[in-house]
# Entry
Amino acid sequence: MKLMILGICGSPRDQATEHVLNEALRMLTEKGFETRFWTVRGKWVDFCAHCDYCLRNKECVVQDDVQELYTLLTEAKGIIFASPVYNGGVSAQTKALMDRTRALVAADKNVFKGKIGMGIVVGGDRNGGQEFALMQIHTFYIINGMIPVGGGFFGANLGATFWSKDTLEGVKADEEGFRSLRKTVKRFADYMEKYAEK
# Structure
């Protein structure tokens, strides 16, 4: 049985972030993993109101499109959050998804335990907050008992970072970004094979 990796795109646009996430999933499919893609684009994603309904009822009170994501997150052995950089951090949509997983944890405190996590971020500027956005993604993984994976030293320490120049063409031309992606995907795949629960 193949290990399933879920790629989550936190960009509301069909642009650079979606492109590089699909490239990562293609690389992982070639390595023999089952991959799934989920995007916030065109979806109804409400914010967490921290109302505690999920603590009492073991489900989220908001019945939006995040409900379909809950099943995928539960089934996945590896998770990739890919986000554009907005104001030096992850997009509001990415953060909303992270906050809304509170309902999953309320139902099962070990739902994320031992899963392998990786991050991809795309900034319009070369130094636009990519590393901080990756730290936000890794913080989510650590809090939830996951194993966060970066690409290792010399260019991909925390994960894959891209400079898009605010265009799809810009991200496609970012050779350094793709080098960081290849390094991170390789390390992520290694961790999936060694540490993900079979």
The longest strand covers residues 78-86. Strands lie at 4-9, 34-39, 78-86, 89-90, 116-123, 147-149, 160-163. Residues 4-195 form a domain with the Rossmann fold fold (CATH 3.40.50.360). The first helix runs from residue 16 to 30.
